[in-house]
Design a protein that fits this description.
Structural class: alpha+beta
Number of helices: 11
Strand content: 15-25%
Order of helices and strands: HHHEEEEEHEEHEHHHHHEEH
Largest sheet: 5 strands, antiparallel
Helix content: 40-55%
Radius of gyration: 29 Å
Shape: globular
Number of strands: 10
Distance between the termini: 97 Å
Length: 321
């Protein structure tokens, strides 16, 4: 049997050896490996491999590289890189020299502008739930999740202290960033937006109620408990239920989520103090940061509320048309 197999192998080898030089060359050419990707920062394939090596991103992490566009600095191109794994994601801007030879990983600032101007420009505050002084020197924006225990603790501190400590200097805004691994966080965010549409003032009652009852709420009982909450409030229950059934506010919540992602928010709560990104920090420390910013804005005047007046949505209870 071994002899037969050996004879077959030799016969095949003989046939291959008998190929003409032209056929051999053709076979060699077809078997040649593909040319390696150009080693340029402006080559997406090479840039992805480069970044995977730099950050130890394994194949399970999805990497999306945007188109290269001119940056504010002559000679540098820029691109947005998004890395994601399940619900976790991170988006970063990278700069590449126009010849593709150098890759810059960092944040670019305009010397004459606020160092957090890019973040300020990405944060939408118009017609968002807010409290505090209109036209304040400092805006404090929280991206929060109603099902997050740390968000609950921070929300309580902010509600108790901001207006008391800064009656005219700080304006606070609440932004939705429900995490995908929380089963009732997004329904709660949609409901909050539905309440805000009807009556912006009742939103804060809702905000405090959800965080206070966080330990009792489940995905199964959320609508039942919401129904009990709105009793006695200046909210039309039928209109609220219709809003929830039709998911009328989902686009608003999704827009807030996309905004958070563009700001590289990947955990809750995340605060922005006049554009400066802050994690969960205790009130005494946050107060020091606010005091510093208030003092800085006395001369800088390059952040804070851009509008002079408060804008509220018309509601059936406000008498507005």
């Amino acid at each position: 049997m071994r002899r037969k197999i050996l004879l077959v192998v030799l016969a095949v080898a003989a046939v291959l050896g008998a190929q003409t030089p032209a056929k051999k060359a053709a076979a060699k050419k077809s078997a040649a490996p593909a040319a390696p990707a150009e080693k340029s920062g402006l080559n997406k394939q090479h840039l992805e491999a480069y970044l995977r090596h730099m950050f130890l991103w394994n194949p399970q992490i999805k990497v999306e590289i945007g188109d290269f566009t001119p940056s504010p600095v002559r000679g540098l191109m820029q691109t947005s890189v998004r890395a994601s794994f399940g619900p976790a994601s991170e988006q970063t801007t990278f700069y590449v020299s126009s010849d593709g030879k150098h890759i810059l990983n960092g944040t670019m600032h305009e010397a004459a502008a606020n160092p957090f101007q890019n973040e300020i420009g990405k944060i939408t505050t118009s017609l968002q739930p807010s409290f505090g002084a209109p036209g304040a020197q400092v805006t404090l924006v929280a991206f929060s999740d109603f099902q997050c225990p740390h968000c609950r603790d921070e929300a309580k501190e902010l509600r108790e202290n901001v207006t008391k400590a800064y009656p005219t200097q700080v304006r606070f805004y609440f932004k939705d960033f429900p995490l995908s691994n929380h089963d009732w966080a997004k329904p709660a965010a949609l409901a909050g937006r539905c309440v805000f549409r009807q009556n912006p003032l009742v939103f804060w009652d809702y905000h405090d109620w959800v965080f206070d009852k966080q330990g009792e709420i489940t995905a199964a009982n959320f609508r039942e408990k919401l129904g009990a909450f709105v009793k006695g409030k200046e909210i039309d229950p039928l209109q609220l239920n219709q809003c929830l059934d039709r998911k009328e506010t989902e686009a608003e919540v999704d827009k807030s989520i996309a905004e958070a992602q563009s700001l590289r928010v990947n955990s809750t709560p995340t605060l922005f103090l006049n554009g400066r990104r802050l994690g969960r920090i205790p009130w005494p420390t946050l107060k020091q940061y606010i005091d510093f910013e208030i003092d800085y804005q006395k001369t800088a005047k390059n952040a804070g509320e851009q509008e002079c007046c408060e804008v509220r949505l018309p509601t059936p209870f406000s008498g507005q048309k």
